[in-house]
Amino acid sequence: MSQHLIDKLREYRRLTVASGRVVFTVRRPTDLEMIDLRSRVIKQGDILGDFVEDWSGITELDIIPGGDGSIVDFSKSLFMEWVADHPEHWEPLTGAILSAYSEHQKKQADLLKKPNAG
What is the rounded distance in angstroms from the CA atom of residue 65 to the CA atom of residue 82? Predict the structure, then answer.
C-alpha cells in the first residue's frame, strides 16, 4: 500500500516539457530537494541530472551523426552526455522544473491562508 502511495506522489510531481521536437518528462523538486539546492551553487547540469526522467522522440540519428532512425530509450547517463552539447534544451527544461516548484509553493501558501472548514 505505501509503495502505491509513493508512486502516486511521484507521478503527481511529473510533467511533460516540449523542447524543439523532443518531449521530456521532468519532475518537480520536493521542498526538501529545493532546500538542498538552495544551500549550494545551483548549476543547470545539476537540475537537469536530478529532475529530467525520460524523453520521447529521440532517435540514434539525433544523438550521433550517421546514426539510424531507431528510437533510443532514455538513460540518465546518455541524456547527460547528449544534453551537454544541446544548450537549446537547458533553459526550457530548467525553467519548467523551477516554475513547477514555484507553482507548488504558491499552492501550498494558498492552502495555508484558507480557514479550516467545519
Answer: 12
Where along the chain do its domains lie? 21-106
The type of residue at 102 is S
Q: What is the pLDDT of residues 39-63, one digit of tens each?
A: 888 888 999 999 999 999 899 999 9
Nearest 10 degrees: CA dihedral of 79, 54, 93, 108?
A: -140
Q: How many CA atoms lie within 13 A of 90 on its CB side?
A: 13
Half-sphere exposure of 36 (CA within 13 A, CB side): 8
Question: What are the two backbone dihedrals, phi and then psi, of residue 110, each rounded to the nearest 5 degrees?
Answer: -65, -40
Are 74 and 55 in contact, with CB atoms under 8 Å apart? yes
